[in-house]
Description:
By secondary structure, this protein is mostly beta strands. It has helices at 5-44, 63-72; strands at residues 59-60, 74-77, 82-85, 90-95, 98-103, 107-112, 118-123, 133-135, 138-142, 147-152, 158-163, 173-175, 178-184, 193-199, 205-210, 220-221, 225-229, 234-239, 245-250, 260-262, 265-269, 274-279, 285-290, 295-298, 305-310, 314-319, 325-330, 334-340, 345-350, 354-359, 365-370, 380-382, 385-389, 394-399. It has a domain at 47-77 and 291-406: Lipocalin (Beta Barrel), CATH 2.40.128.630. The longest helix has 40 residues, at 5-44. The radius of gyration is 21 Å and the shape is globular.
Amino acid sequence: MESRIGHSAAVGIKVSLLLVFMVIAVFFVVQASMGARDSAASISLSRPVGVDRAIGETIYHSLDDLLQDLASARVYTLVPYWELAVSGEVFVAEDGGFLYLTSNLGQVMAVDAATGNILWSLHLGVWVSAPPAAHAGVVYVGATDHVLYALDAGSGALLWYYTSQGEILAKPVVDEGMVFFTADNDSVYDLLHRLYALDARSGALLWIYDTESWTPASPAVGDDAVYSGGYRREVYALDKYSGRELWSFKASNIVFSSPRVVEGKVLFTCIDGWVHALDAANGAPLWSRKLPGFVWLSLPDVSGNLYACSHRNTLTALALDTGEELWAFDDGYLLSCSGLPDADAVCAFNSEGKAYVLDETEGTPLGLLQTPYDFTSPPLLVGNNMYASSSDGFIRAYTISPDAMP
């Protein structure tokens, strides 16, 4: 696991070029959508406050509405009950009361979620760009040295490793004794990716699927199939056990985020703001919805709402069955959201260290949870506990008590 300076330099160049490519793509998408948003905003602000809308129509709050809602919402300050310094950008996964952390500088550690005590820590000496996957006593970490590492969750000892064709940039997915991950073809230009299925206990190769595309995202795994997309505007389904292609779908634009598989539907977004739902069995289109800007999906909450978060801007609730827009909440600095089933609400996190508690039916603010620190990545919400990394180099644990809920 020794660091290799030459390889690290090459990795840095490649990652920088990929980031430039993605930033340029997002910039043009956002700029294209801003004109439409500005026009819509000028119309929306001319509406009287409190005008009722037909059932099923999207509910957009004017600035005055939002300010009034926030003024009446309860504000609750969250105080961390432990903090831990970690070098670099931090990614977090949780399993069985323990946190497993990776940093882009190659650090991997296990932490007691209740106390913040470090159980074990090691350095891979390579760049890591995604959270680990933890399951059944094993932690799986993909790295840019082309290797998928399987570590003992209790000690950090290396159980096995598998060397792929290129860099592993996304989180592995573990399901039914198998681990699925993608790796690129170790090229700066003409990027392709290969999807691997390994035996989760031994690391033995089960099957490989090569594409003519590339994605920095994890695959989605359903009951019988694995789903992925890429920059060639396609989404495809593979048999989970053999890797045989079942169907493919030509999307409206580049698919750079992970699909979601929910209630027999494959849900995914494109970089131009389109959200699509397909029949998971055959790839037949079910519905599509255009949203402003670059968007990504969060899993549906217990009410069945699907949430799409636009690039640092708007959280939109969609009906899972129809794609109908139910409501939208605009903050300008949103990172992600998580359902709060005990409160019949959804929690929307922004980069300034705030979490808005929103009514799942109308999207109105019910409360505001604020921390003394910013968020550099989407916080992880597990039960009533929240784990978040900040720009000062710490990851912190917070408890969202029932008193903080509306």
